[in-house]
Amino acid sequence: MLSSISPDLYSSFSFKNSLAEAMPSVPHELINSKTLSWMYNASLDIRVPLTIGTIYAVSVHLTNSSERIKKRQPIAFAKTALFKWLCVLHNAGLCLYSAWTFVGILNAVKHAYQITGDSSAPFSFNTLWGSFCSRDSLWVTGLNYYGYWFYLSKFYEVVDTMIILAKGKPSSMLQTYHHTGAMFSMWAGIRFASPPIWIFVVFNSLIHTIMYFYYTLTTLKIKVPKILKASLTTAQITQIVGGGILAASHAFIYYKDHQTETVCSCLTTQGQFFALAVNVIYLSPLAYLFIAFWIRSYLKAKSN
């Protein structure tokens, strides 16, 4: 069932009203810990991604402008064996974490489909979208939990940039924009429990599993065919473009809840719509930057 966007939901959209929406419930996996429950609510304050993202972007800009980076001079520590093994640990750790997230969220999707499904029509449109969109399905079976940790991981991933800068190399616009935007996009998706954020978590955790495995091998000086790197970049572009289109489609999805027999919109709050808009707007320039990188790195390099 495809339908037009509800005018009541979007015609009077207000960012202030979105921020006034109640915080999502703490994941049941964290609810028994006062510390983790507090951290969950505190870290979803909009000032967290705005502050960290701004500090990160400004710091990268200033470091890129330094004489050391202009001369491509690594710091002394970057030449040590300890630095190399810390990089291996960083890449291997993110590879394993991403794999854990991917497997976990797939199990959550499976569970959501099982509890949402209509036994008389287990493979119907309504069952499929009900499992992704209903607040009582995928969100509670694991998206809230795995998505929250994935959101926090976006802050840690700036270590990638720190490694690049430590080696005396400048951080590209793609690198800086990618990390800064991911912080805010994941924040919006989790803060407003926006159904399309499942796409970010599923696709990105899979790509990162492969990507950080590749980085682990290259850090260990294990030769990897160049075509693998090109294929990885192609997969990232496919993820961004395909994921963006799939995410945007959620704004037009209406499904029938087989328990209440009512037709429901996939997006039910202004906050969920705002989160979707943030992600789609973020992905558009990101796709351009990745495509430009692919052309510069592989097409032009091959012709030269």
* Mean pLDDT level: 91
How much is the radius of gyration in Å? Answer: 21 Å
Low-confidence stretches are: 1-7
The strand line-up of the biggest sheet is 1-2
Q: What is the H-and-E element order? A: HHHHHHHHHHHHEEH
Structural class: mainly alpha
Strand content: under 5%
Total count of domains: 1
Give the end-to-end Cα distance, rounded to a whole number of Å.
51 Å
Q: Helical percent range? A: over 70%
Number of helix segments? 13
Largest sheet: 2 strands, antiparallel
Describe the structure.
This protein has 13 helices and two strands, in the order H-H-H-H-H-H-H-H-H-H-H-H-E-E-H. The protein has about 300 residues and is mostly helical. It has one domain (about 5-304). The chain has a two-stranded antiparallel sheet with strand order 1-2. A hairpin with a 4-residue loop joins strand 1 and strand 2. Helix 4 packs antiparallel against helix 10 (about 175-190), helix 6 crosses helix 7 and helix 12 (about 225-250) runs antiparallel to helix 13 (about 270-304). The radius of gyration is 21 Å and the shape is globular. The protein starts with 6 loop residues before the first helix and ends with a helix. Residues about 1-5 have low confidence and may be disordered.
